[in-house]
Specification:
This protein is mainly alpha-helical. It has 6 helices and 2 strands. A hairpin with a 4-residue loop joins strand 1 and strand 2. The termini are far apart.
């Protein structure tokens, strides 16, 4: 079996995973659900806003720096399937989440990672 090293951090993502499409729509409900999952499982390493900075009050270090999901260049280089596979399988020091989170929850996290990289401006219709 051949693996390609793509995206960030030298992950070995199977080529077929790169083609997977996210079946979960990105909307306020799914992003809210993903934010709860992220707060519990992800923010202690990837930062409160996805910037890869350890939140205040936590002190530990890694040999591999957590990905900064606010970096559009990094996030845009990865397909939805690639991000899903990375969440599912992990890569030390990041644990795998395929047995901790449902497929829907992992796809919701893909949507949230995209939202960190491409934040939507606040609705300005009330500011006319």
């Amino acid at each position: 079996m051949t693996f390609a090293i793509v995206g960030c951090g030298g992950w070995d993502v199977p080529p077929q995973a790169i083609t997977w499409k996210n079946p979960v729509p990105s909307n306020p409900e799914t992003l809210a659900a993903a934010r709860q999952i992220y707060a519990y499982h992800c923010q202690k390493c990837h930062g409160i806003g996805g910037d890869g900075k350890i939140p205040p009050g936590l002190t530990y270090s890694y040999f591999t720096r957590p990905t900064n999901f606010t970096n559009t260049r990094i996030v845009n280089r990865m397909s939805d399937g690639e991000i899903f596979w990375k969440i599912s399988h992990g890569n030390r020091p990041m644990p795998p989440f395929k047995n901790r989170l449902s497929a829907v929850q992992r796809w919701e996290l893909v949507d949230l990672i995209r939202a960190f990289a491409h934040p939507q401006p606040m609705n300005q219709s009330s500011q006319k």
